[in-house]
Design brief:
The protein is mostly helical. The protein has helices at 2-10, 14-22, 24-29, 33-50, 54-67, 73-90, 94-106, 113-130, 135-184, 189-197, 199-206, 228-233, 237-242; strands spanning 213-217, 223-227, 249-251. A 3-stranded antiparallel beta sheet has the order 2-1-3.
């Protein structure tokens, strides 16, 4: 059956081709989608590009509109749209412009942003500017352009919101890493004193039972006795030690 249909579509006789076109829906229901894409669809485009019958063009464009869902996404975005653009460049008659608009109205949910930007909107604008159209079709195409622009807007808003969410998550991860790094850089009192005073003095300060107090001499020579161990327990002990002015001298001595 399929070889006979293909032969009829290739014959170049509009009446015979018209009979096949009128029955394309029935034929398509009885063949695999891949066969439709490989055998029927290309022949339909060839008829559109070469026939002089406006009636046959209109019927073929209507059939493609009804059967486009047999084409996969790649065929729709890269083949069908290109073929319609090619057809419009050759024929800007009312029936062709109307047929292309009908197909674009159907495939709006099946096309990519890239196809809309590069092919569909330029083709629709070409119909508005150069097509042999009436007022009714002009209004339809104008509405269709806005519909495709709205589709781009919706898709881009989703992408932008997704990017914003990823940026927030990345910032939170970086903040967590900074906190973890700060925790890892925290040192214990004994290790700090060993590095600051040397093993002998730090041992005296922390481990010696006799050494329980420190005496601080400032530049004026005044003394202040503070319980060293209690002082070390305070969170600001090391901070104060590191931030002392250069004219202050600190030393420790044993108090019986």
């Amino acid at each position: 059956c399929l070889p006979l249909i293909c032969k009829a579509m290739d014959c170049g006789v509009s009446k015979i081709q018209g009979v096949v076109v009128d029955n394309l829906s029935y034929v398509s229901n009885n063949i695999d989608a891949d066969l439709f894409s490989a055998k029927i669809y290309p022949r339909s485009i060839q008829i559109l590009l070469h026939t002089n019958s406006d009636k046959l063009k209109k019927r073929l464009l209507c059939s493609i509109k009804n059967l486009y869902n047999l084409l996969d996404s790649n065929m729709i975005n890269n083949v069908l749209i290109n073929d319609l653009e090619k057809l419009l460049s050759k024929d800007k008659s009312l029936c062709v412009c109307d047929g292309i608009a009908m197909i674009f109205e159907e495939i709006v949910d099946s096309v990519s942003v890239d196809a809309i930007r590069k092919k569909i909107i330029p083709t629709l604008i070409s119909i508005l500017v150069e097509g042999n159209i009436n007022e009714k079709l002009y209004e339809r195409v104008s509405v269709l352009i806005n519909k495709y622009i709205e589709k781009i807007k919706q898709i881009r808003e989703k992408d932008i919101n997704k990017n914003n969410t990823e940026d927030i998550e990345e910032k939170e991860d970086n903040d967590k890493k900074k906190i973890t790094k700060a925790d890892n850089n925290t040192f214990d009192n004994e290790s700090f004193l060993m590095s600051f005073f040397g093993d002998g003095q730090s041992e005296m300060i922390i481990g010696s039972p006799e050494a329980t107090k420190t005496t601080t001499l400032n530049s004026t020579g005044s003394e202040s006795n503070t319980d060293l161990i209690e002082e070390m327990k305070k969170g600001d002990f090391f901070e104060g030690l590191l931030n002392k002015k250069s004219n202050q001298k600190t030393f420790t001595k044993s108090i019986s």
